[in-house]
## 1
Amino acid sequence: MLIVTTENIKGCKIIDVKGQVFGVVVRSRGLGGNIVAGLRSLVGGEIHEYTALLEDTRKQAVDRLVKNAQAMGANAVVMMRFDSSEIGKNMSEIVAFGTAVVVEKEA
């Protein structure tokens, strides 16, 4: 599955547009992780617990995006983007979205 953030894929021609496609994940950090992260925030710097959580969540959102695009009959996703938001005090929503398309190599 080709996934790009651009409108076109160099060397490929879009032959069919399947439509918008999403991969959504909502995650919560456990109490222990929140306490450790809270303590780290007192001294400043990167909070590794949250970085790892968000990185894993983005990967899972892309995996779901790919699965949904394949179910639509697509072999690529163009204009892929991420969006995120907070839900409550300790939950994050990560959305990977784009346009599912069928591409073929140009002759």
## 2
Amino acid sequence: MTTVPLPYRVTAVSAENADCVSLEVAPAGRALSGFSPGRFAMMYAFGVGEAPISVSAIRGGHRLVHTVRAVGAVTGALCRLRPGDTLGLRGPYGTGWNLHGAAGFDLLVVAGGIGLAPLRPVVRHVLDHPERYGRLHVLIGARTPEDLLYRDELEDWRRAAAQMEVTVDRAGPGWRGSVGVVTTLLDRVETAPDRTTAMVCGPEVMIRHTARALLDRGVPAHRVQVSLERNMRCGTGHCGHCQLGPLLLCRDGPVVGYDRTRSLLAVREL
């Protein structure tokens, strides 16, 4: 891990939807190490600033992929980068998904919107190592069909034995899938609560409702992992901008067990 941005060169750019881009980057010199699914980097757009972005793929040769949604000056600048451009990267920071602790369990992945990006390497890892896990269920929600991420990959995941369920909030005339919030898909999944590990990422309201629904179905709170987002600025737990109760999410998160965050998230509803 480094607290000084290292130069990385953009090697490929993929437009995922109208406002999300996946950037594949490779070190232009010294490489960062220690990335795992769920951890994030501070990505620096030169002359603009930096933003925390979770890794959405980890490839050979120290190549990383980050999926960025253009929502402000920094992320907008990152989304405008092209192959050959240079950005700064520091990290990795935070906690990752506990895949080791999920070994032998059925895995339930629930993603909303851009929340699929940090969960993408989880799905790939499980599909690459099916002998280590039980059944894989992937539930995805998006605003519209056009907002879905990794649309070409989703069918590959389905063919590779993942149970895939997708829903959208608003559908156009060509959509033949489900319409509704992602929690409605839970009724389609047959799980043994004591043999299930859930990993959830998306808007915070979606995380709260999904976690509650899982607990109502008997999944223990410590078996529900959630990825939370706050205003992360330093990435090292010093500035305090990402504080959630006693937690500093850039250090103690972003992936945290729901048993540790249940009461903290409930307070935010008042």
